[in-house]
Amino acid sequence: MELSRSAGVPSAGVALIALAAAALPLVTRDSYYLDVATTILMNLTLTMSFRLQVSTGQINMAHISFMGIGAYASALLVTRVGLSFWATLWIGPLVAAALAVPIGSVALRVSGPYYFLITFAFSEVVRLFFNNFFEGLFGGPSGLVGIPKPDRLLGLAFDGKLELYGLMAVLCVGVALALVRLDHSRFGLTAGAIRQADLLAETLGVNVFRYKLTTFVLGSFIAGLAGVFFAHFRRVLHSSDFGLEPMVLLVVFTVIGGTGSVWGPVVGTILMTIASELLRELHHYEILVFGAVLILTMLFAPEGLVALPGTARRLLRRLRGRAPAAAGVGLAP
Amino acid sequence: MRIRGGIAAVVMMALAATAGTTTPGAAQDKTLTIGVLGPLSGGAASYGVELVRGAEMRAEEINKGGGLKVGSDVYRIKLVSYDHKALAADAATAANKLVFQDKVKYIIGNAVGATCNAVQTVTEPEKVLFSFVCWGTSNLGPDKPHSFRAMLSQWEVAEPFYRWVKEKHPQVKRVAAISPNDTSGKDTNTAVVKALKGLGFEVAADEYYERGTKDFYPILTKILATKPDMLDVAAAPPGEAGLILKQARELGFKGPKGWTAGVNPVTLVSIAGKEAAEGVWSPANINVKSDFVSATVRRFGEEYEKRYKEVPGVIAVANYAAFDVFTKAMQDARSLDTDKVLAALTQKPFDTVWGRLVLGGKETYGIDRQFLYPVVISEIRDGKVVDIAQVLPAALKK
Amino acid sequence: MSIDLLVQALLNGFGLAMVYVLVALGLTLIFSILEIINFAHGEFYMLGGYVTYYAYALFGLNYFATLGLAILTVGLAGVVAERLIFHDLRGKALNAFIVSLGLLWVMQAGAQLAFGVLDKPVPSAFSGIVRVLGLVISVERLVVTLSAIVLIVALYLFLRLSRPGRAMRAVAQDADAAALQGVNIEAVAALGFGVGCALAGGAGGLLAPVFAVSPAMGALPVVKAFIIIIVGGMGSLPGAVLGGLLLGGVEGLGALFMGSAAVNILGFLMVIAVLLVRPRGLVGGA
Fold this sequence. Notes:
heterotrimer; A: mainly alpha; C: two-stranded antiparallel sheet; 12 helices; 76% helix
């Protein structure tokens, strides 16, 4: 890890995000732009928490399922039990985190590709469950409709795009702050050590399993938080929103940006979401272009977009003479 | 590196090619932008593609004929179509883009039930008129006055269809229905079961499969063990319906077959093969080559095949007709204001490629927003689709 | 519920299992040699399907000759893909994941562009059914299963007896040691990727007449293949066969007792259960 570990720079980065998020409504109040910006912030919380797990070497394909669990939990607690959104905003993520404990304990017994595939299996089980079981509760294949927007809080109504955007911005900045803090704490350093060498960390007395489980549960809590917001923002839930395709997009956002730092997912998510909105009109050409972009990025910038300057420098050096080959984002098996 | 340069060049070419497809409209006329949504990539792409093509053909006809005259203004129609990949959340974003970015007041066309609910959370508050071919009772209702279904659904056709079966084929007593397990599938089987029970049939099986299934031996073994007289591949899309019929024949099923919510019989025949498709009855099909359809439909079919090298299914025809109905209503209203167009839509019948078309459905949905037109029951004979009977939905008889 | 029905359900499940085993073997071969999971594997299966559509259904080539052509064409496409985009990604799981995903999108959209969006039928080469003791067996599926078994045996012999096959196994076991022994890793990687894709292509060719072909047809077999290799154990040929039979049996029987849509959950539950008991799969070694 050649990255500087001083916490000042990243905190300034979070402040920058917060500032940018606060400035947007001053520039435009167009519903579409606010909608896209809200989606970006929501995806940011997901990709940042996903990266937290990637940083200990886990590609958790069930990450999106915990978003779904938070979303369904909150939607049901509000519509069936009559709880306030402001209560479920915390209960939803707690439900996700609680379920993450047993699931994580099982999944983390394996590693590498096995971990990848077992979490994929879990995510499919969760999706198929929402789709095919307890139809009266989860809405089955028709989905869950009629979810209300967040209720008033301290005299503030949350029925406009702007207010929802503001709420998501607050949540996202909060999550970003917490994650940056974590990344630069002892915990974050240990996570980095685990990612580079499980065994070494183990011999140095680190309880690798507990660290991994903690990041898994924490990541699931944040995903659940995004899920609760999603449920009351879109007001319609369908199992496919928490299936393989959106999950794959999260991985793409994160890796394209670069998993080496907290900023990778930020850059990846913002760039890719905007690109996908610009390309929406291209129909199936969109995925053709996207696919090609993915391949080219990984070939030319294997460490992600944020590492591009460094990669370019190294490449130049390699062209001039001999230099150490670029290290990929490879994972310890 | 040289090879990778080649990849980059190909990508650039693809980008350039797609960028070149948008042509600037004529400057002097006003422009009316109309939106189309649908799954345009992935497994359900064929639905979305047909929606776009149907709209495209009618829009071009109007533009070639000098534009759409509404009151004293003449409009060129510009289509904007977005892919939502059959995902609900993505559909909401796409609808937002249409409504707030492209300032669209009319979205004509969408498919896949779950995405309809998501689109409606955007269109209803903004009073955007939204027509779709999604099935599902929840998509129409008094709380959604700006939403329309532009295609007959199982709720309109199942009852008249099975009434016809009962009259003409009294040997059929036990019917098995199979559909994919999504909104359209659940709704179709529910409507079929309701019609069957109401008419005194026995329901041998009411089964669902996961969309994308290819091997139907397991589910068919279970269904055929219930000894049905007739097999209804209710809401199965053409490719899957074709596979079900082919495999049912392999497993020894010889009884009559139905396709209550069939959409493209030509594809069904090609996948199932002539023998397995022989005798399939369907009340929702359209055969653009049939002798029974009007000259306009036949022309539409020929033109479509010439342009896209594929035979249009019922969804392409439905969206072509929906486009026709909405633009006619704009002319009747002499305005593009959606309230006025809404009033014009529900006032009188329209002459369309379907024949006479009215908006009805109040008894089923609580509001008259369902396009109603004659149901034509067809039978597949020797690989050809032959129209054999015409029945009217109850509301159209008035 | 009669015994007949139970046996028939099992037969249904086993009916196409060997073809999915073929897909799975391709996936696991590529994994063993390059240490990456190729998500676009299903798209090579799709390619095999379309080769069959054009050569057999349209051009009228002999069924088995077409199968050979599908295997060869797709194998070649695999070698090209390895040389062009995968050869730098050895062992870089995350990067390879993204690249193969990109390839999946490009190939799927490309297929929609080149071949059209509608399903394309491929006529059955063998029709009719055999009835044994009240059980129904389709001749077509019987031929497909036998062909798949022949291909699996061929792969086994290739890996055991041929020079390049042995080199592949050496690289799979320990790439560094193999390189020290003079094995050309680059060549083995390209060939291994090609053979892996060829297996998928062959499977696509076999199932084209059974299921018809469409641009998105690759999604289903690749998920089945994942389940099979996890249950059986990565890198194990007998494991894949066992995994295929287990998955087929569970799905076939499950369809009798629960809604068919819900049956899909069984395969994934099986993955979780097996990994709980034996983290390396049923036959997986170290």
